[in-house]
Specification:
Helices cover 56% and strands 13% of the residues. The protein contains 10 helices and 7 strands. The chain is elongated and about 135 Å long. The two termini are 35 Å apart. It is found in: Cell membrane.
């Protein structure tokens, strides 16, 4: 009864974080309203739509789904995070054992020789014993309970760190697939342009042989072909590195992963996106929840430090028997028992415990500041991503228009030159512009997909909608998802 009365130290209260009611006004829910349907589709933000636990399926690629699922099964970083969670949960369960009495059973039997005082000669005899000892540290001031609270909070934090690793891994896989597809299409565009440039070079060489163009014009076209070819190796290197990175995400050796067949065309852009209010983000983001768990731990540590300054009470008792024969144990005259109550109070320790309490209070202040920082950065990531999505749509529209215009400009310049009324410099300029415009359009498509991934990640990844927790052990974030929401 005494142990359940008081728990010194402050009880945890979630700190307030200043946030607006919503990230965007209702007038800003349409993303990319100005985009040409031939280029891409308009996206709409729906505040009523929640983030799905398997949000990557919104991109409509079976190959992408398989890669994400494989990474979640095999990635060693995720395995390490799951093991860290189980360790923290077991440590928390172990700490909870301090709330209960400890009981030890001792059974012994010995054969001894001692000098018998009456005869002065050695005597040999047996001694058997059996006893039960019980000890209980009375948690009058709640120091043990605060310690258990701190361990539970540490395990909770590990759970949300696991969710953060899960979200980061799935987002990295999707982003890697998009990047790989973008690089492959860039290489295809460059190869197609090189073929066009070589064909035009052949025309110039033929006309030079006939005396219609100068050798300078032929050399200029050869230079532009070589310059375009020089853009291939850097992208080929990035593509290989991207495949190696994706293989590592999947838990494979880098050389084991073959080039995937996904392309930007095969990846559907989700046309309806979820959107949460800032107050909901505090519950959804695993990094915010992990920071809050650390704040809970620091709050409980203050109670532990205060309890260390107060008296410690304990009870112990023992009951047993000692006899020269095992059969005589617990017979009349062989029974032994003891009962002890003790109290201990630190009188002088050079200020060690006092400074430990001050350190715990400073640790709480630091954890509170980190929590506010993580929350505000999370709000900023959502706003930045929403702004980027709108900008991406405008960029894609502009890049598409530039590509169409440069293609037309190149055809006109080549037609004039073929008719003997044009300037080769205009052709070279148009070819360079076409390459840049085509690569810009491909990059804009990939950027729009990547920032859509970033929005799902910024909103927390939908772990609260998962049917089963990530770890089999109880107490993980999946177990309290419904309560959190």
């Amino acid at each position: 009864m005494l142990s359940g009365c008081v728990a010194v130290g402050p009880d945890y209260v979630r700190p307030g974080v200043n946030s607006h009611a919503e990230f965007l006004s209702s007038a800003s829910l349409d993303v990319g309203a100005q985009i040409d349907p031939n280029v891409g589709q308009q996206q709409r933000l729906n505040p009523e739509r929640d983030v799905g636990a398997d949000w990557w399926t919104e991109f409509g690629s079976a190959e992408l789904n398989e890669l994400v699922e494989e990474s979640l099964r095999n990635n060693p970083d995720l395995d390490a995070a799951q093991a860290a969670l189980r360790k923290a949960q077991e440590e928390a369960a172990s700490a909870g054992g301090a709330l209960f009495p400890r009981m030890d059973v001792l059974v012994s039997h010995s054969r001894q020789q001692n000098v018998i005082a009456a005869t002065g000669r050695p005597g040999v005899y047996s001694l058997a014993g059996a006893s039960v000892a019980v000890a209980y540290d009375m948690d009058v001031f709640g120091g043990i309970r605060r310690s258990v609270e701190a361990m539970d909070a540490r395990a909770e934090g590990r759970g949300y760190e696991l969710e953060a690793a899960y979200l980061s891994l799935s987002a990295n896989v999707v982003t890697a697939v998009i990047t790989e597809a973008s690089l492959r299409e860039q290489l295809q565009a460059i190869h197609a342009l090189i073929d066009t440039q070589r064909a035009y070079l052949h025309v110039l060489e033929t006309r030079h042989a006939a005396g219609d163009v100068s050798l300078v014009e032929v050399a200029s076209q050869r230079a532009i072909v070589a310059q375009t070819q020089a853009t291939l190796p850097p992208r080929q290197k990035r593509l290989a590195q991207q495949r190696h990175r994706l293989a590592i995400y999947l838990g494979r050796f880098p050389t084991e992963f073959q080039e995937s067949e996904s392309s930007l065309i095969k990846l559907a852009l989700p046309n309806e996106l979820p959107l949460a209010v800032p107050s909901a983000l505090l519950n959804q983001r695993p990094d915010i929840r992990a920071a809050e768990a650390n704040l809970k731990r620091a709050n409980a540590d203050i109670g532990v430090a205060i309890a260390d300054l107060l008296p410690r009470l304990s009870l112990s008792a023992g009951y047993g028997s000692r006899a020269s024969q095992i059969g005589d144990l617990f017979s009349t005259g062989s029974i032994l028992w003891n009962l002890l109550g003790s109290a201990a109070q630190n009188v002088f320790d050079g200020g060690r415990l006092t400074h430990r309490r001050h350190a715990a209070e400073a640790d709480f202040q630091q954890a509170a500041a980190v929590y506010r920082s993580v929350a505000m950065n999370a709000f900023g990531q959502v706003v930045d991503t929403l702004t980027a999505l709108e900008s991406d749509a405008a960029l894609l529209q502009a890049e598409y228009a530039a590509e169409v215009a440069t293609e037309q400009s190149l055809r006109i310049a080549q037609g004039h030159f073929d008719a003997g009324a044009g300037d080769q410099a205009l052709i070279l300029i148009a070819q360079a512009k076409l390459l840049n415009a085509r690569l810009g359009r491909i990059n804009a498509q990939a950027l729009r997909l990547n920032n859509t991934v970033a929005l799902y990640q910024a909103l927390g990844g939908g772990w609260w909608n998962r049917k089963a927790p990530l770890a089999d052990a109880q107490g993980g974030p999946g177990a309290d998802a419904a309560h959190s929401q």
